[in-house]
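step=encode ok
step=design start
structure_in=
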C-alpha cells in the first residue's frame, strides 16, 4: 500500500519532541522525505517528515499499515 497525492489518510505521527498524535489528513504531495498535507484535525496545512509517520491507513480501512 502506498500513500498517494489526493488521498485522505489517518496517521500516527511522532514530532521532533517525541510527542505522538493521531491525525486525519488530505495528502497534497510528497517530496524529499516530507509529506505536505491539509490536516483535517487541526484545520490547517501541515508538513510531516515521512520517517516520523509511525503508522497510516486510508480513511475507512480498519487496520494500520
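sequence_out=
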Amino acid at each position: 500500500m502506498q500513500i498517494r497525492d489526493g488521498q485522505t489518510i489517518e496517521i500516527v505521527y511522532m514530532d521532533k519532541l517525541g510527542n505522538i498524535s493521531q491525525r486525519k489528513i488530505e495528502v497534497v504531495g510528497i517530496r524529499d522525505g516530507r509529506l505536505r498535507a491539509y490536516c483535517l484535525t487541526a484545520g490547517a496545512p501541515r508538513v510531516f517528515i515521512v520517517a516520523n509517520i509511525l503508522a497510516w491507513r486510508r480513511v475507512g480501512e480498519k487496520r494500520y499499515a
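step=design ok
step=annotate ok -> The mean pLDDT is 92.
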